[in-house]
Design brief:
The chain is mostly helical. The chain has 4 helices and no strands.
């Protein structure tokens, strides 16, 4: 998978390459997803601009909701892409797999599920409690 038992004890060059390839592949997938969502958003705007004659309040509301949904999707994709970009940077710095909060190693299982994780489970829970 993305990580192996070497997390927390050092990684071989092959492990680093595997992790780097996986993170970069996901980053590239998100870039393609963003480009496609951006193209769809632009088409939606063109249709909206060209098709406003005779719109009532319901039509305007629907178009606004569609535009908001498209913008929300774009922001979510950009956020996820930034997380993978950050993970790639951490990998290059040698801090990938270590919690940014407490400095302990992030469990392998967490990194396999969420490769861009920057905190251990405990620190993540503490952040969520404070945010609530």
């Amino acid at each position: 998978m993305l990580v192996n038992e070497a997390i927390g004890t050092g990684r071989s060059a092959a492990d680093m390459d595997e992790i780097r390839r996986a993170l970069k592949a996901r980053y590239d997938e998100l870039t393609v997803e963003y480009d496609e969502a951006m193209a769809q958003s632009q088409v939606l705007r063109l249709v909206e601009i060209g098709d406003t004659a005779g719109d009532d309040q319901a039509d305007s509301g629907t178009k606004t909701a569609e535009r908001d949904t498209a913008q929300s999707l774009l922001r979510a994709i950009l956020d996820r892409r930034a997380q993978f970009e950050h993970a790639l940077g951490r990998l290059e710095e040698g801090t990938y797999g270590w919690c940014e909060g407490c400095g302990n190693s992030i469990p392998v299982e967490r990194l396999e599920i969420f490769p861009a994780a920057t905190t251990c489970v405990s620190c993540k829970q503490n952040r969520e409690r404070r945010a609530a």
